[in-house]
Amino acid sequence: MIEFFFDCSSPWTYLAFHNLQPLAAELNEPVHWRPVLVGGIFNAVNPSVYAMRDNPVPAKWAYMLKDLQDWAREAGLKIVFPPRVFPVNSVKAMRGCLWLEPQGKLLPFATAVFEAYWAREEDISQDAVLLKICDQVGVDGGAFLAGIAQPAIKQQLKANTEEVIARGGFGSPTLYLGDDMYFGNDRLPLLKAAILRQRAASL
């Protein structure tokens, strides 16, 4: 099984989230979607992200923007970066992913959150935006707001975030195949190769 630790506030995570689904289907490999709060990861183990944002290297930043658009074009996605609100507080959206998982709604909800933020520049920290997304994916808005306020949901998001840190993660998306860690959208070919190696070794 592939574990996918993710936060919808990252454009690279949007790409990986989108690209992993057909890859997993091709390989018939299940995915365990693990929502986290990437700000908590940065605060704990990767504060250099904040320094980079405050004082970016101009040439590197320009290339990053180009690289992101190259990947988005390849994936058939629209990604606007930076959006009007960046970074965004994604805690309610990520709690929503957790609450909706048992209902089979995590994937459509997360997809809609990614699209709202990265394609339409909507502020996913706002209840009104999240309620519009709920309506879009057939989720009762009142139940959603009550659900994401449950202590168990809040604790699960915290636990997922602490788990990925404990396992060596430092950002989003972080993927695992067993204990083998891969970081970022561009590592998906390496993940595929690892799955195929495992299967060949078991024959």
Topology:
Elements (H helix, E strand, L loop, with lengths): L1 E5 L4 H17 L3 E5 L2 H8 L2 H7 L3 H18 L15 H10 L5 H14 L7 H10 L4 H8 L2 H16 L7 E4 L2 E4 L4 H14 L2
Parallel strand pairs: 1-2
Antiparallel strand pairs: 1-3, 3-4
Helix pairs in contact: 1-4, 2-9, 5-6, 5-8, 5-9, 6-7, 7-8
Describe the structure.
- It holds the Pfam family DSBA.
- GO terms for molecular function: 2-hydroxychromene-2-carboxylate isomerase activity; glutathione peroxidase activity; glutathione transferase activity.
- It catalyses: 2-hydroxychromene-2-carboxylate = (3E)-4-(2-hydroxyphenyl)-2-oxobut-3-enoate.
- The chain has 203 residues and is an alpha+beta fold.
- Helix 1 packs parallel to helix 4 (58-75).
- Helix content is 60%, strand content 9%.
- The chain has one domain (2-201): Glutaredoxin (3-Layer(aba) Sandwich).
- The protein contains ten helices and four strands.
- The radius of gyration is 17 Å and the shape is globular.
- The longest helix is centred in the N-terminal third of the chain and has 18 residues, at 58-75.
- It has a four-stranded mixed β-sheet, sandwiched between helices.
